[in-house]
Each structure stands twice: as C-alpha cells, then as structure tokens.
Write a structure and sequence with these properties.
The protein has about 300 residues and is α/β, with parallel strands linked by helices. The chain is built from eleven helices and twelve strands. α5 runs parallel beside α6, α7 crosses α8 and α9 packs antiparallel against α11. The chain starts with a helix and ends in a 5-residue tail after the last helix. The chain binds beta-D-fucofuranose.
C-alpha cells in the first residue's frame, strides 16, 4: 500500500502539490457545494489544498493570498468576492511566479495578472432568465422585483445587465424594485418582505428575478407568509440550480432556474496541470455551461440527481 501511494505521488511530481484556495465564504448552497467539490477534486489529485474562508470580506482574501505567497504555494485559486481592488495582490503573486486561477467570479484587473478564469458567462445567465420571462408572460404586463447578489460582485453586475438586455424593448415588462439580498436566503426573505409590503401586499408583483436560488428560496417563504402562492401569483426565476430550488419547482413554488456547475475546481486543476507539466497556456476564460430548467424538466428527478453532486 505504501509503495503504491509513493508511486502515485511521484507520477504527478511536477504538478502543483500545494494549492491555496481563497474562498468567499458560505453564503449560498451553491458556494458550499463548490467548497466541497474543490476539496474532493484536490484530494483525488493528491494536491495539498490550503483552504481559507474569507467570510465575505475582500481584506481577508487579500491577507490569505499574501499568506499563500509567503508559504510558497505552487498555485492559488481565488473566488473573488467583488470585482475591483485586486491589482496589488495579484501583482505580488505574479512577481512571486505563482499562477492564480479565478473561480466563478471575475475581476477588473489586467488579464496578465492571472493564468485563467473558470466560470460561466454571467451576462448570458441573466439573459436566459430574462428571456424565459419574456416568453412566459407572452406580451402581458409584468411588474418585476429583483433581488441582486452581493454589491460590487461580478455576478450581481452581470446578471442584472443580462436580464435587462433580454427584457429591453418589451415594454410590458418592467423592473419596479431592485435591491441586494447579498446572495443569502435570510436577506432574500427580508428584502422580499419589504417588496411585498411596498407592492400592495404583493398583489402588484408579477414576477421575482433573484440573482441566485438561495435568495429565491428565502423570498418564496416570504411570499407564502404574505398569503400568496409563489410560482403562480408571483412567478419565480433564479440562477444556480441547487437542490432546494428543484424541490420548490417540484412543489410548483418556483418556475425556472439557470444551472451553474459547482465543479469549477476540476477544470481549474486540469489547466494548472497542463500549464505546470507541459507549459501549456490555457485560454484566459474556461467557460462552463448555463442550462435553463423549468417545471417541465423533471424537477423531482433533478433534486434526487443533485444529492450526489456535492450539495
Ligand atoms: O451564483 C451564488 C454564489 O459567484 C457565480 O455566488 C457565483 C455566485 C452564485 O453565492 O449562489
């Protein structure tokens, strides 16, 4: 047994052995699954993963990256909480010749400062959600409330822009309220309560667009407590495709979601391996898929299927 283990390690000697991962936190079910899968993927590849949870704070992420650099890690994975403010620390990693791979969110820094970024087309996701609403309301008037993700994060900025582009020119659809729920279930519920209050107890709301499923799940609870039927009185469309939203869809309480894979680390480690072992420069953006699911797509089955996917 010992010999086998040593041989297996020897076979990947030039691959990154120690990788630092600066994770945002655990704001959503999707994020928790990404953490689980990153740890799993590292273990399967014999990588020593140094995990740091920033509890939503960019300053904690910057401190973690500096500590990874000081420890001399072979590579760094970074899920950046917000899009701005990374130039200096990325420059420091660059000077230390430690490749950085961005996971699931983007930064506005010079692309030369990181090796590659693994993630979805966040604008497209918003557009898919918006197009679903355009098709579903089919020309009828629809007043929309929007729960935004974390202020200043690329998914909040891009998912808003994508949705707006899809409803542009459809004068029957109007976003009447839009506020951040910070990607959490608790704030999704709280902000939805204020939307309901401000909109005639919810009777003036036709649809909710939430930048992630967790906020939608919180909002669904608020809608029920207000005596309305989510999924019928108020349409619900969101993004991520976590198990709980499929449960809500199966119960008729949510209408549509756009899938985001929580396995960003698999493609990230593949790119790092090719780069470190063969000098292969990866593309600057490794794009994951964005698939729309509705109540017609066997939500109960999708719920079951997702139990084995790290959630
Ligand atoms: O959709 C949300 C999470 O950064 C794209 O972050 C990701 C988002 C994801 O907390 O649930």
């Amino acid at each position: 047994m010992m010999t086998v283990a040593v041989l297996a390690l020897g076979a990947t000697a030039s691959m990154a052995q120690t990788v630092g991962f600066s994770q945002i936190g655990s704001e959503s079910g999707w994020r928790a699954a990404e953490t689980t899968l990153t740890k799993q993927q590292a273990e399967e590849r014999g990588i020593d993963l140094k995990f740091s949870d920033a509890q939503q704070k960019q300053e904690n992420q910057i401190a973690a990256i500096r500590s990874f650099i000081a420890q001399g890690v072979d590579a760094i994975l970074l899920a950046p909480v917000v899009a701005t403010g990374w130039d200096s620390v990325l420059q420091e990693a660059h000077e230390a010749e430690i490749p950085v791979v961005l996971l699931d969110r983007s930064v506005d820094s010079d692309k030369a400062l990181y090796l590659t970024a693994v993630g979805s087309d966040l604008v497209h996701e918003g557009a898919v959600a918006g197009q679903w609403l355009v098709d579903t309301v089919a020309g009828n008037d629809c007043r929309v409330v929007e729960l935004q993700g974390t202020t200043g994060s690329s998914p909040a900025i891009d998912r808003k822009a994508g949705f707006e582009s899809a409803i542009e020119g459809h004068d029957n659809i109007e976003i009447v309220r839009s506020q951040t729920g910070d990607f959490t279930r608790a704030q999704g519920k709280e902000v939805m309560e204020s939307f309901l209050q401000a909109e005639n107890g919810g009777k003036d709301i036709c649809a909710l667009y939430a930048h992630n499923d967790d906020m939608a799940v919180g909002a669904i609870q608020a809608i029920k407590e207000a005596g309305l039927k989510p999924g019928e009185d108020i349409l619900v469309v969101s993004i991520d495709a976590v198990p709980d939203i499929f449960q809500a869809m199966a119960a008729g309480e949510a209408n549509a979601t756009v899938e985001l894979t929580p396995n960003m680390a698999g493609p990230a480690f593949d790119a790092l391996k090719a780069y470190m072992e063969d000098g292969a420069e990866p593309a600057k953006f490794i794009q994951t898929e964005s698939k729309l699911y509705t109540q017609a797509d066997d939500p109960a089955g999708e719920y079951e299927r997702r139990k084995d996917l790290g959630y």
